[in-house]
Amino acid sequence: MRAVVVGRTGGPEVLEAREMPDPRPEPGEVVVEVEAAGVNFVDVYFRSGRYPVPLPYVPGQEGAGMVRELGDGVDGIGIGDRVAWANLPGAYAERVAVPAHRLVRLPAGVGAETAAAVLLQGMTAHYLLHDTYRVRPGDTVVVHAAAGGVGLLLTQWARLLGGHVIGTVSTPDKEKLARAAGADEVVVGYDGLAAAVAGLTSGDGVAAVYDGVGAPTFEASLAALRPRGVFALFGQSGGPVPPVDPQRLNHAGSVFLTRPNLEHHIAGGELATRANAVFDLIGAGRLRAHIGAAYPLAEAANAHRDLERRRSAGKLVLTIGEPASLETTG
Predict the structure, then answer these.
(1) End-to-end CA distance of the chain
(2) Rounded to two decimals, what is the model's pTM?
(3) pLDDT exceeds cutoff 90 at 169
(4) What is the dihedral of CA 16, 43, 291, 108, to 10 degrees?
(5) CB–CB of 71/39 below 8 Å?
(6) Do 151 and 167 touch, CB atoms closer than 8 A?
(7) Which of 20, 88, 94, 282 is buried most, with the most CB atoms less than 10 Å from its CB?
(8) Looking at the predicted structure, is the pLDDT value of residue 111 above 50?
(9) Are strands 62-70 and 29-39 parallel, antiparallel or unpaired?
(10) Which domains are delineated in the chain?
């Protein structure tokens, strides 16, 4: 099979497409023929060495496709099933072995490319909006990078819950996407965030800030919160935040700072609950996936370059298998 391999940490150039042996399923695993893989900032963190992992490895934390082989002891999954998974390595490949208990069946009408575009980021949006800070009707929240993959989902979903959204984006072109997703106000850059927050909250501040950017947005995020507000720092696409004196949280109004992770929110039955919530809204047309660009497997490096340089909006995916063989299977 063809796969992308990282043999050393570094820039996008370390993503090398090569031939590898087909995987064989261990007990409790299945082999999936991959049609599409999601491209996420966590892939950049692993590739660059920010999150250390043993080398070499096949990147890609999210994918979708068709089950082709079953390992011993697998129940409830059959050959030919259309499935997706998230937060597991190896998706940048034509085939991957995945633990059966981490697979989610795709409902009819949700294609593999859509699934690879929304599962990881959609479940992230779900736990942020329902658990990290539960948005209630009338709440105003800040969503940073509101035209990115997670940002667009957060914005749409927060509005479905009755919230108001102040989004930030990096360029005027991305402002249109954020507004189309339902953002009440969009700030290009971060300098105008304080004024936007004051205007929409009568000077009170927002209930929560959902920040996947990190260092460049930290100060603006902290300043935007109302007393006892929640600062959800769920990523660091712009770089890690330096150590923070806890006394700053006191001065900001007894605010809460948390660094949540998807893996801690999909244990046990939570995986199925969150995945089904995402796919139900996608299938009903109430939540829309915005795929900014799709790349063939061999162009994974270009996908990473575009992601890191913020050349794209929405979600980036790699297309790997044959769509017809997967999308038309009931």
Answers:
(1) 26
(2) 0.93
(3) yes
(4) 100
(5) no
(6) yes
(7) 282
(8) yes
(9) antiparallel
(10) 2-118+289-327 (3.90.180.10), 136-258 (3.40.50.720)
